[in-house]
């Protein structure tokens, strides 16, 4: 995708500085690689996780200046001009501090954890306060700033599955470069900074902190953390979907109309329809959730 925006105004990621700030022994990450271009960071990192597992441990990061075959939910294409976005995937092999693997039921929270980390990291550095839209979008005033996509990687030798969490966030896209009119970018929101090095560090540090807290409670999103919050509470506090009348588009053209009540213990959306029946909607079941106009 070409752009009129000068690459001189879109500086590249500083791999050495990012590694120094984020990787062991200074930081929590075990590996961080920056590539100029890839088809999809999620796909490439999943290949590394399967074929070179020993070299790609928990909290390994792959980020790209540009990707040519990025995909969102439902296999929707996602591409952006070079150096205009945060394109980053994180490999997770979830375990608690004692080394015991987390229950696989807890994995459904990891995409919400990533969305929360991005929202909190962006707010810290830009003074913009993004919100979350279930199941995987980050919004600013109702316009999409970023999306999150998680995928499982089968374990080796009977071990537990790993998880790849990918984030694509619009940083310096102009009006003409937006993928859809309902999207936005940090540039268009007059963010305090559009320096992707600053934003990536903020996101990854916040992600590592949230992930450590989540692992410490064995992946129970409702268990209280030392600061008195929990993952479920912090996600819910930022989620604009909750408390709204929504139209849930399900596969096969089926629609569910009702009020979004909250999230269950696995991060699924609880909806009460207009006949007062409660429904549990998982991310895998839904095509789209939108407010009832």
Helix content: 10-25%
The rounded distance between the terminal residues' Cα atoms is 34 Å
Instruction: Report the portion of residues in β strands.
Output: 25-35%
SS element count, helices: 5
**Strand line-up of the largest beta sheet:** 1-2-5-9-8-7-6
Mean pLDDT: 92
The total beta strand count reads: 14
C-alpha Rg, in Å?
19 Å
- Identify low-pLDDT runs: 1-8
Would you give an account of this structure?
With 293 residues, the chain is an alpha+beta fold. The chain contains five helices and 14 strands. The protein has helices at 15-22, 41-51, 110-126, 196-216, 231-238, and strands at residues 31-35, 60-64, 70-71, 77-78, 85-92, 131-133, 137-140, 143-153, 162-170, 245-249, 255-263, 269-273, 278-281, 288-291. The strands form three sheets. A seven-stranded mixed sheet has the order 1-2-5-9-8-7-6, sandwiched between helices. Helix 3 crosses helix 4 (196-216). The radius of gyration is 19 Å and the shape is globular. The chain starts with 14 loop residues before the first helix and ends with a strand.
């Amino acid at each position: 995708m070409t752009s009129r925006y000068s690459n001189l105004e879109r500086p590249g990621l500083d791999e050495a500085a990012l590694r120094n700030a984020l990787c062991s022994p200074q930081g929590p990450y075990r590996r961080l690689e920056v590539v100029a271009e890839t088809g999809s960071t999620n796909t490439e990192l999943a290949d590394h996780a399967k074929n070179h597992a020993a070299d790609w441990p928990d909290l390994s990061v792959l980020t790209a200046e540009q990707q040519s075959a990025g995909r969102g939910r439902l296999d929707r294409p996602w591409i952006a001009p070079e150096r205009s976005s945060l394109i980053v995937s994180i490999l997770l092999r979830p375990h608690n501090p004692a080394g015991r693997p987390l229950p696989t039921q807890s994995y459904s929270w990891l995409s919400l954890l990533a969305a929360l980390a991005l929202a909190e990291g962006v707010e810290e550095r830009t003074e913009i306060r993004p919100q979350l839209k279930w199941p995987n979008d980050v919004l600013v005033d109702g316009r999409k700033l970023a999306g999150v996509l998680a995928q499982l990687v089968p374990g080796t030798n009977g071990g537990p599955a790993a998880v790849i969490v990918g984030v694509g966030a619009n940083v310096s896209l102009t009006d003409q470069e937006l993928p859809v009119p309902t999207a936005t970018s940090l540039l268009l929101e007059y963010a305090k900074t559009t320096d992707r090095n600053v934003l990536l560090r903020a996101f990854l540090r916040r992600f590592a902190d949230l992930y450590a807290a989540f692992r410490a409670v064995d992946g129970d999103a409702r268990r209280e953390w030392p600061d008195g919050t929990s993952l479920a509470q912090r996600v819910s506090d930022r989620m604009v979907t909750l408390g709204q009348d929504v139209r849930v588009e399900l596969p096969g053209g089926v629609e569910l109309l009702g009020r979004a009540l909250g999230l269950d213990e696995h991060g699924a959306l609880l909806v009460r329809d207009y006949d007062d029946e409660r429904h549990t909607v998982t991310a895998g079941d839904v095509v789209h959730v939108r407010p009832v106009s």
